[in-house]
Amino acid sequence: MSDTVTSCPLCRGVYAALRQHLRRAHGVKNAEERGLLLSLASGRTNIRAEPCPVAGCSYRKKRLDRHLSDAHPEVNAAELDELLASLKKRVAVRQLSELRATLPAISMVSRLDEAAYEETEASPTELPPSGVVAETPTDLSPSDELAGSPNEVPPTGEIAESPTDLPPSGVIQESGHGTEPGGCSIRSCLAIRSALRARCFQLQRKVALLSKRGRNPSMDPVPVQPGRTEGFGRQSTSKCPKFSQSVESYLSAYRLQNQGSNPSVKRRENAASKVGRVRDFLAYMAAGKDRLHLWNYLDNPERIFSYAASLQPSKTVTTAAIYLKNLSQFMKYFQQTPPKQCRLSRGQIVGVIRAVDASKSNIHTPVVLHQLKVKSDKLSRLVSRETLRDCQMRASAAIPKVLDCMERGNSTRERYAFFGHLSALLASLYGHRPGVFRNMTVTEVLHAAEEEECEADTITDPGYVISVAEHKTNRDFGAAQMYLRSEEYSWFKRWLAVRGKCNPTTDHFMVGDGGGPVTNLLHCMQGAWIEMELPGRPNFLDLRTAVAAHAKNFHPDDVRRRIATFMCHDVSTADRFYTLVLNPRQAKQLRIQLEEVVADPDPPCALSV
């Protein structure tokens, strides 16, 4: 006999060409099902990530094979082979069950997963005691296991044809000492169950054929919320649609792709938001459709345009643009790695991408107009230079007084007042986002003192530079920096002495009542702004806009770019969209320059030929 022969997991026969045997003898036409059966027969079922099968061991990592050989010397080779064989069979049965749950287009033939479910369903009273040789389903013949075609039914001589033809319950005599001689054995009981299961499967196939001729939406295996959904991001309260397991697995893989390795909390939130927007689109496209795991419902350009149009009444144009951008990214991922059950051709996928890109192109002009309007609104409530100067002076005078009160008796109100005045001072000076102050750590503050000692020998009163690593644009600008004079840094040191009384649980510089990072920094800053009797009630974005705008109007371009880099601000976006918005003085100067073009009868030539 050849060394390449393999035992068939369905009929227990030994064959040299098992792949052809499964396809011809058992009719296994589903390629994925056939691959799982071949892996089970050859012992190549992947069990590396499975938990350890040894009793009492809690190992569950990625190399179970090495763990069994290295960590369990008490298990001999025979027992180890038995444990591995049992585990591989359980994993293969689970994979077959998961494949069946996806409702594949090509029907499955094997019933190993259903037979395993029937085994777990049996009660302990149906099993013989240890002294009796147990007859398990693995000892049954191929006809008892019903491993062949779904239409095969065991012979009528062995089992009953219908539940009404079954023998009365008194024929099966069971007791605590096993099955009595002359009674119905466990083999026949399992055979009867197998026959009933086969009959039930035949009825299900008939129901499926009838439902195809006149389908009832209530019978769809994958129900979806009909009509327009309201989104599934963090702010959504609507129900998520129930897709099949294969679709959910694909969306989970896409979420992991967006998260990357070692993701931060913010990156996880962004990835979840992207998947939520994609899910919103899929729910809209799949409304009233069936067999969603095949993804055929995406090939509908009119429906895609309708989805893009339905975004704008309930969302701003910029939010709608983000939805379409995330959708375009998903479709490119879909094109490069389509799902296994996808029945869309390459041309159809390209058609879907073109429809999404067309929707993005149509919304581009409203987005630009919206950005110009937002910039104009920002400039209308721009914090003046005088107000910024007053904020810096009054905050510098108020912070030492607040610290004096905190050193006498620390209270929540005084602590938040210190956070508000300090953040208002630094935001009005450097224009940093609130995340810079919120993510600043004690280690970074103390590290500034170490750098100051190194520079003290060469520079008179060099000051202190605090570099905050964790902030929004650290990937483009690196750490966000703030320069402090000696007096200002002394405020930080005084707060660190008081901070220990707050029982902090993190290394963050600003901590709240629970010892964690402060979360209501905007409320603290605006409270300090009102306490300093300054006009308006700006937020951190208003202060950042004011600092950037005044730097643009006051300093030349090279100085302005250095300031923008120091405050982690990209001027390219502002130069692209916001230079069209001029104040009256700038517009007047521009008009004078335009009038000079036609006023001089002999203007100087701009280019020398």
Task: Provide the descriptors you would attach to this structure in a database record.
single chain; mainly alpha; 24 helices; extended
Brief summary of the model shown:
The chain has 609 residues and is mostly helical. The chain has 24 helices and six strands.
Largest sheet: 2 strands, antiparallel
How many domains?
A: 4
CATH architecture of the largest domain: Orthogonal Bundle
CATH T-level fold name of the largest domain:
hpI Integrase, Chain A
Overall spatial form: extended
Distance between the termini: 93 Å
Query: What is the element string, with H for helices and E for strands?
Result: EEHHHHHHEEHHHHHHHHHHHEHEHHHHHH
How many whole angstroms does the radius of gyration measure?
36 Å
Unreliable sequence segments: 120-184, 215-240, 577-581
Structural class: mainly alpha
Q: What is the CATH class of the largest domain?
A: Mainly Alpha
**What is the topology, as strand order, of the major beta sheet?**
1-2
- Helical proportion, percent range: 55-70%
Summarize model confidence as the mean pLDDT. Answer: 76
Give a structural overview.
Helix 9 (265-285) packs across helix 11 (317-336) and helix 14 crosses helix 19 (486-499). Strand 3 (174-175) and strand 4 form a beta hairpin. Residues 120-184, 215-240 and 577-581 have low confidence and may be disordered. The radius of gyration is 36 Å and the shape is extended. With 609 residues, the chain is an all-alpha fold. 56% of the residues lie in helices and 3% in strands. The chain folds into 4 domains: 1-110, no CATH class; 136-164 and 188-212, no CATH class; 245-362; 411-587, Orthogonal Bundle (hpI Integrase, Chain A), CATH 1.10.443. A two-stranded antiparallel sheet has the order 1-2. The protein has a two-stranded antiparallel sheet with strand order 3-4.
